[in-house]
Amino acid sequence: MAPVVAAVEPFTSLLKRLQPQDDGLGDDTGSTDVKPMKAHRRESDPAAALAAARHEFGEYGGVNMSIEASITFTVMEPDTMRRLFAGELGPERDDLYIYSRHFNPTVLALGRQIAVLEGTEAAYCTASGMSAISSVLMQLVGAGGHVVASHCLYGGTHALLSSFLPRTSGVSTTFVDTDDEAAVRAAVWPGETKVVYVETMSNPTLAVADIPMLVRLAHEAGAKLVVDNTFTPLVVSPARLGADVVVHSVSKFISGGADIIAGAICGPASLVNSMMDLQDGALMLLGPTMNAKVASELAGRLPHLPLRMQEHSRRAGEFATRMRRLGLRVTYPGLPDHPHHDRLRTMGNPGYGAGGMLCVDMGTEARANLLMHHLQNSTHFGLMAVSLGYYETLMSCSGNSTSSEIAPDDRARAGISPGLIRVSVGYNGTLEQRWAQFERALAFVQQEIPDAGAGKPCNAV
Ligand SMILES: Cc1ncc(COP(=O)(O)O)c(C=O)c1O
């Protein structure tokens, strides 16, 4: 394997091809690798940016790109191999590839589209969201380093920061309410904090991070702001607001099919280059590579992601409003009294609403379970399943599932109550059909527990 990774050098030039179309305004970062996005491009609609990106055609003129399934690539002359390994030849300049853990044309084409979507110079597609998150953190933080993270994160990320990285790399994390500017400042270890880490919209409490404020605090501390944008593709573009790195669980909304596990790291070309370094690049050495067939599948789903997000958001907004009218304790950032409603409106991209996730707090786990039981088994409103971004509605009780890695006290501090049902609102069927199913399920619950669902509207995050 050693000679293969020696070919890291061509990646720099490859990334020049990965950037969105040059706007001709030049470079304002001093980077010699790739030119950065300019301000007006940062403000553009991500769907428009996607549509303006280079269309990848198939080998025979097919309207879809071909799948390059090979993991290894041949050359015509022995000396070409030497030159590839020496970095004299590479994918961009010469359309020459070596090995697919390194560069694969199909996976790179998907990465280019995801970079355009998020408005970053480059993106690298990985085998899962967790591999994207763990690789970035290991790369940016390093042994013994420090992270300031939101106290409300996906349970797997929380466990990575609170258990795995401390054990394997001596990395420590201070979890704080990242809305509290003073708390974030106080949590910084001068000179040692390398990353401030948040989710744009927190899993599962749907708190919306103040990204411009966190960019400022992270940069004052000499750290990078890394944002998990899994819940809000298109709704918010963190890199356009100044975030240094955006990570995704592509398994969710971006895929939309609940049939693929995948991830992405979006950021400067220099970061992706460093992660491909022969000696200490986390992507190169941990190898969480995406398969080319998976990349091809996902590339076919990106063009309708904007439409899907709009419909997820429209239905979630409508259901949240109606649930609120029924007196349910519903949390949805699109509701005007959500504490981060105005923040989301300021930060968000116009036309994509407030996202497809909402939460209903039934007070106790037993009530939450009863409602989910009727919603799935009596009225077929949705499915009891973790994950999100599927065309069917998915429901889970976060406290005993995707946030169960977080200790009960920390869950309580983060606002994850035992009766909290996280709902990923789907878009199949008609809205009125689904709403009737919801109301019937709630009526069943109220027959069995008369005061279920009664209670003050609550948007505590
Ligand atoms: C916000 C968030 N980030 C990351 C992940 C991990 O992604 P994956 O399952 O693709 O590894 C998840 C999974 O649920 C998630 O909800």
Automatic annotation (TrEMBL):
Keyword Nucleotidyltransferase: no
GO cellular component: cytoplasm
Residues that bear N6-(pyridoxal phosphate)lysine: K252
Coiled coil residues, start to end: none
Region described as Disordered: 18-44
InterPro entries: Cys/Met-Metab_PyrdxlP-dep_enz (IPR000277), PyrdxlP-dep_Trfase (IPR015424), PyrdxlP-dep_Trfase_major (IPR015421), PyrdxlP-dep_Trfase_small (IPR015422)
Cofactor(s) this protein requires: pyridoxal 5'-phosphate
Annotated protein name in UniProt: Methionine gamma-lyase
Species in which this protein is naturally found: Lolium multiflorum
